[in-house]
Design brief:
By secondary structure, this protein is an alpha/beta fold. About 35% of the residues lie in helices and about 20% in strands. It contains 15 helices and 19 strands. A hairpin with a 6-residue loop joins strand 10 and strand 11 (about 265-275). It is elongated. The termini are far apart.
Length: about 425
């Protein structure tokens, strides 16, 4: 589509300008609070729509987030505010309580959550631009479904996020190994010449009172301990006490595994050795989209001597396809002996896990993903009412944390092996 040349002045931080200079399929920005990225991208969606409509094109601008239960949780108000700040954009768009669209009927904004509404997104016609805000938690499967949906000639995908973990699908896809046709930059408060005084006062207060979170909130560093994390203090103590280190496999000691069995999603397995009062986490494995035979092979290939395998209580449920329970299937695969974790409430299990972490030594290399998950496993937060919900947030950390919880409530010692852990500068000996 041939586009008309349009010149108009808008105000953006210089780093943001560089993102939108020239052609690109993907444009993105990541970093901390106060960078101006969200407001700038909201404004540029309106500019993109204006350019498209004035050139004779029609289409939809999709504004998406991982979770979106209502318009109150969307970018709608941010977009309205951005449009109203520029006279020529305000003249082009019609703004209602629950909608934004061009007055000529060519451009229409739609708002959607990726977690629950992917199938409906696929049916939306002529998406010329998809902007995914707060994209840190978007899953790889969501990206795989969304990207081919944005297929109009000249269409673009924009991404903005505050980094939390290098394990996130968004980090891997757009920062670690960005697409060839992309312009993606890190931007923080220092890069925003319009950084307001009120935010600077908040920044300085965070620096003085919340130094553990300051680098994440304001400078876009990875989050070590998530806000509302269940095990933040316990994992911080483990780090300070040198219990995140090198933990070798002791051949004279049996290995206990603890599983969270996913149905249609990830299965997580912890590998632990109990030595005296110490719990040595020597390994961790997680995978999805494979059968139980895959995990049986993983166990065999690792070459450990197994004492027992702790499984969740629902392992006894029979599957409709085979008529067998997963417990029976695992038995045929020689995954035995099995211990069924007691059916305790989540809160009781979390308390048991907290107690166990105080006795745990983690192999930081083999258990890196597991350690990251325990650090960031957190309560669900109600953004609308600004309160913590009384249940965990279900995200990438859940399966790992559930498996660890089963280890904490399901292990019952049968022997007392070995001597307590001894350390040197290289780790555990």
């Amino acid at each position: 589509m041939k586009k008309k040349s349009t010149k108009a002045e808008i105000r953006l931080p210089p780093k943001i300008v560089s993102i939108f200079d020239g052609e690109a399929r993907y444009r993105g920005a990541y970093g901390g609070r106060g960078s101006g990225k969200t407001r700038s991208f909201a404004l540029m969606t309106a500019v993109k729509g204006y350019q498209w409509g004035m050139s004779g094109g029609t289409g939809q601008i999709l504004c998406a987030r991982e979770h979106l239960n209502s318009l109150d949780e969307s970018s709608l108000e941010e977009i309205k505010s951005a449009i109203r700040s520029v006279d020529w954009l305000s003249s082009y768009y019609e703004i209602g309580e629950k909608f934004v669209r061009s007055r000529d009927g060519r451009i229409n904004y739609v708002f959607s959550g990726l977690r629950r509404n992917l199938d409906s997104i696929k049916s939306k016609a002529r998406i010329i631009l998809a902007w995914v805000d707060e994209a840190e938690g978007v899953s790889d499967s969501a990206w795989q479904k969304l990207i081919p949906t944005v297929r109009e000639e000249g269409s673009e995908i924009w991404v903005t996020w505050n980094p939390e973990t290098k394990r996130s699908a968004t980090h891997r896809r757009f920062r670690l190994d960005p697409p060839t046709d992309s312009k993606i930059v890190q931007i923080n408060w220092q890069d925003n010449p319009y950084f307001p005084t009120v935010l600077n006062n908040e920044r300085l207060e965070d620096k003085a009172k919340r130094p553990d979170l300051y680098e994440h909130i304001w400078n876009g560093d990875m989050l070590i301990h998530a806000d509302g994390a269940y095990y933040a203090e316990e994992m911080r103590s483990a780090n300070n006490e040198g219990r995140l280190t090198v933990v070798p496999y002791e051949r004279s000691v049996g290995v206990v595994t603890a599983w969270d069995l996913g149905v249609g999603d990830s299965t997580a397995i912890w590998f632990a050795q109990m030595v005296g009062q110490e719990v040595r986490l020597i390994d961790y494995y997680e995978c999805s989209g494979v059968g139980l035979d895959h995990y049986a092979k993983v166990l065999a290939d690792k070459g450990y001597h197994y004492e027992s395998h702790i499984l969740p209580h629902d392992v006894r449920v029979r599957e409709m396809g085979t008529g067998k329970s997963r417990l029976e299937t695992l038995d045929t695969l020689a995954v035995r002996p099995v211990t069924i974790a007691p059916q305790l409430g989540v809160d009781d299990g979390i308390q048991a896990a907290r107690t166990m972490i105080g006795r745990c030594w983690f192999d930081l290399q083999k258990c890196e993903r597991g350690v990251d998950a325990l650090r960031q496993y957190r309560r669900d937060y109600d953004d609308k009412n600004m309160v913590w919900r009384g249940k965990p947030l279900h995200d990438w950390t859940s399966h790992c944390a559930d498996a660890f919880r089963y280890l904490a409530v399901g292990y019952r010692p049968t022997n007392d092996w070995g001597e307590p852990i001894r350390r040197n500068l290289q780790g555990i000996v």
